[in-house]
Specification:
Elements: E1 41-42, E2 58-60, H1 65-71, H2 87-93, E3 117-119, H3 122-134, E4 142-143, E5 145-151, E6 157-164, E7 167-172, E8 176-178, E9 187-190, E10 193-196, E11 199-200, E12 206-207, H4 212-220, E13 225-232, E14 235-237, E15 247-249, E16 272-276, H5 279-287, H6 294-298, H7 308-314, E17 322-327, E18 334-338, H8 346-354, E19 364-366, E20 369-376, E21 393-395, H9 405-423, H10 437-448, H11 472-482, H12 488-510, E22 512-514, H13 515-521, E23 537-539, H14 540-544, H15 551-560, H16 573-598, H17 620-629, H18 634-638, H19 645-666
Parallel strand pairs: 1-4, 8-21
Antiparallel strand pairs: 2-3, 5-6, 6-7, 9-10, 9-20, 11-12, 13-20, 14-18, 14-19, 15-16, 16-17, 17-18, 22-23
């Protein structure tokens, strides 16, 4: 494989300052020489930096945790064969840095909004990835620079052109995956200085971009390429930070992304901290806007993790923005100031940093920078992420227009699986929008395309109450097993868990008791004097659907009433509780979606006002795009990237209601 310019499973490079980014999966990257498998050959630059992160050392988070768990739905406890993804599994075994985030299902978000997140020690994560790769049977890792793809007369993949130990060689293959991250004709910016590079290295150097691959994709295959931008903040010396003036952000509930996985008994936690920018910080940013190069001010960067310049420009009414201080490891003093990306000159970055509480004396170890790079219009791909104009060629990661390691990991699983299936002459592996967020992600990209770095949100899915983190294995393991991506042990484990869920739900639905009895024993229930008669009954499942209901409390109430306990196995308790709460809403959601789909070709009046005062539930992104495109029908609106299914239904209901009011007024 190659680091950044190549063909093989490489992760994406510098992402925005989101702090929720992680590694792609079992990635192959160039870098240090710590304990790599003996099967690495070549490598004039010292071995593959497997598992290294270009940005923050974190996985999951709001919305993205639901992408990491499907990545990890490969084998969880069996032998480390090359199946499924690894990002979540490795994170579960690594030491953590103090921002494990697994909100309780009874939080304001509910189980359907839970976004598990974790941070891991950078070096330990790399070592864990290297160890896993070293145990994979039949895997040979070739260290070198992947320069190009060799195609036959019909544009079918014949091999990968690589430079190994100073020599150009062709590695023959029938399928290849290109995951160039930010390296495709990459150019970095610090102030007005710019230079060809895919990213900076930890020792202060840079790594060269991939220009040959860009020529092949654009000129030989005729694929449409465009430019995107992202950035990474400066790295700080933690010894120069006044931690006492910052607000501690301890871990929430410790967890593992994998069902059934155990956490290390020796795992150590390091607390992250929060501070904030202020008006003084914003004044410095505004005063030095002219020191930024054009791509850093007008380039199309990540909408949802913008640079500090974009934050100050876009949210001029805000007096402060959060800055999360995230240690990069247990044995290093490097700190990642999540929220401060910006490619100002180094001296300006220092002024910005030192204007913030707790960072008045902070030392910048490595300045932040922006990187601009090519990506391929993803509508050129099929749902298997195959390039339509080149048989056996697949794309994954930021080359498809996404931002973030979680999205890259998901695409890497789909592209990697299909490349392997293609080489074996087997049917392709495609996930639907109703099966996984991965399916939503791929479908959005290949059918709608994107003009800005695409980030996954749960709101992009039609059935997000069904696509939860707790049931990812139940939804996907069997599908993966059908295509040889997980072994029989993992498939059996998932089937057993699915059986336990259904048996538990059957028991809860069958157990019906008088409402007054339930309410007399449950603190979250309404007052028993609400007029309920003894003839009114509810099942345990219906009681669990009530706000504030807790499975343990319901089980205790059943026992108090002299009935056998529900006996819900701990391994399925979260899924059983979520099913009780969400099944009624899912039924209604399906009905609403069916009504909308039957009327998708209904015209949208040209005078519809998309202002927040009229349609408050629309996001700023949706409002901007609807105002700019002014779609004529709902079918047209559905083709606009970033317009969610829920918002289409919301807009449809608004238009129908408006028409009814107009007709009544006319009468």
């Amino acid at each position: 494989g190659g680091d950044g310019r190549g063909v093989a499973a490489r992760g994406d490079a510098a992402d925005g300052d989101a702090g929720r980014v992680r590694d792609e999966q079992s990635v192959v990257r160039r870098g240090g020489d710590r304990g790599w498998p003996r099967r690495v050959r070549g490598g004039e630059r010292g071995g593959a930096e497997r598992g290294a992160d270009g940005a923050a050392d974190a996985a999951g988070g709001d919305d993205r945790g639901d992408v990491v768990q499907p990545v990890d739905r490969g084998d969880r406890e069996g032998p480390p064969v090359s199946r499924g993804g690894r990002a979540g599994r490795v994170d579960g075994s690594s030491d953590r840095l103090g921002r494990d985030t697994l909100p309780d299902a009874e939080s304001a978000q509910g189980a359907g909004g839970v976004g598990p997140a974790a941070q891991a020690d950078r070096e330990l994560y790399k070592a864990a990835v290297a160890r896993l790769l070293g145990e994979v049977e039949n895997l040979e890792i070739v260290e070198g620079s992947a320069e190009d793809v060799e195609l036959d007369a019909e544009n079918g993949v014949r091999g990968v052109v690589a430079r190994i130990a100073g020599e150009s060689v062709v590695i023959g293959c029938r399928a290849a995956v290109i995951t160039t991250g930010t390296f495709l004709r990459g150019r970095c910016y610090v102030g007005h200085d710019s230079y060809e590079a895919g990213r900076h290295t930890r020792d202060g150097g840079t790594e060269p971009p991939s220009n040959g691959l860009a020529f092949t994709l654009e000129s030989r295959l005729g694929l449409p390429l465009a430019r995107l931008k992202t950035g990474t903040p400066p790295r700080l010396d933690g010894r120069t930070i006044d931690w006492d003036r910052c607000v501690a952000q301890p871990s929430e509930t410790p967890f593992a992304f994998s069902h059934g996985a155990s956490l290390s008994e020796e795992r150590r936690l390091v607390t992250c901290y929060r501070t904030n920018t202020n008006e003084g910080t914003h004044d410095i940013v505004r005063a030095h806007a002219s020191t930024l190069a054009a791509p850093s001010t007008t380039g199309i960067g990540p909408r949802y993790c913008p640079s500090i310049f974009k934050k100050v420009e876009r949210f001029s009414d805000r007096s402060s923005h959060a800055v999360w201080l995230e240690p990069e490891g247990l044995e290093t003093d490097l700190v990642y100031p999540n929220g401060l990306s910006g490619a100002f000159p180094a001296e300006v970055q220092e002024r910005i940093v030192r204007s913030i509480v707790g960072l008045e004396s902070a030392t910048i170890v490595q300045p932040g920078y922006d990187v601009e790079y090519d990506f391929v219009d993803p509508t050129s791909l099929g749902h298997d992420l195959a390039v339509r104009r080149a048989e056996g060629l697949y794309l994954a990661g930021q080359i498809c227009g996404t931002t973030g390691y979680e999205e890259a990991a998901a695409l890497g699983c789909v592209a990697g699986a299909n490349a392997g299936l293609h080489a074996l002459g087997k049917p392709r592996f495609v996930l639907g929008r109703d099966e996984a967020y991965v399916g939503v992600l791929v479908d959005d990209l290949v059918t709608r395309g994107t003009q800005e770095p695409y980030r996954m949100f749960t709101s992009r899915a039609e059935f997000r109450l069904h696509l939860r983190a707790d049931n990812a294995d139940l939804r996907l393991t069997q599908r993966a097993h059908e295509h040889g991506l997980v072994d029989d042990v993992a498939a059996t484990r998932a089937r057993d868990r699915a059986r336990d869920v259904e048996l538990s739900l059957d028991r809860m639905r069958a157990l019906r008791l008088p409402v007054v009895d339930w309410y007399s024993r449950l603190d979250f229930a309404p007052d028993t004097d609400a007029g309920h008669s003894r003839s009114a009954h509810k099942s345990a499942a219906e009681i669990m659907a009530m706000p504030g209901a807790d499975l343990r409390l319901v089980d205790d109430a059943v026992a108090d009433l002299g009935k056998p306990r529900l006996d819900v196995p701990a391994a399925v308790a979260d899924t059983v509780a979520a099913r009780c709460k969400y099944d009624p809403y899912l039924a209604r959601q399906r009905q609403e979606l069916q009504v909308y789909q039957r009327n998708a070709h209904l015209y949208i009046p040209p005078d519809v006002d998309y202002d927040a005062a009229v349609l408050p539930a629309l996001s700023n992104e949706e409002r901007d795009k609807l105002q700019a495109h002014r779609p004529k029908t709902f079918a047209d609106a559905a083709q606009i990237s970033g317009i969610t299914p829920a918002s289409l239904v919301y807009l449809y209901n608004h238009v129908v209601s408006r028409d009814k009011k107009a007709k009544l007024a006319a009468q």
